[in-house]
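Problem: given the chain below (145 residues), write out its structure.
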Amino acid sequence: GKAEVASTGPARNAHEALIQINAALNSGTQLIFGLRVDGARSFFRAIDKDKSGALDRAEVARGIKRLGIQATDTVLDEVVAAIDANASGLIEMQELVNALQDPRVAMAAYEAAIAENDDGGVVAASPEEAKQALAAIHKQLTSLK
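Solution.
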């Protein structure tokens, strides 16, 4: 696919944040927490502070900040939800790699999950609605394998 151009300034939404993360990671090797970072996998390893093999929201927020990307707490929550395809509350390496490979696909799945579980008059999904929807998408995707 065609590379999307990163906007400047604070990320206004999760899609912009994912594009800015991609742009930062593809701009050349940099040091984050003393580790060389030149892509999604090395970024994941650098920001996995507790070396658990999964990223929590705080680790993602710190990593995004280290890349020089500004985002509100709401945007950070959206980024984590959009990347967390299996709705586990933690981000595994492959989820991060997939989301950064194609931010449009990650955002489409996230938005579909919210729309599918919307309870009528509520414009934004609750974290629980988003988690349920993403779990349903993950179940559908894994059944295709």
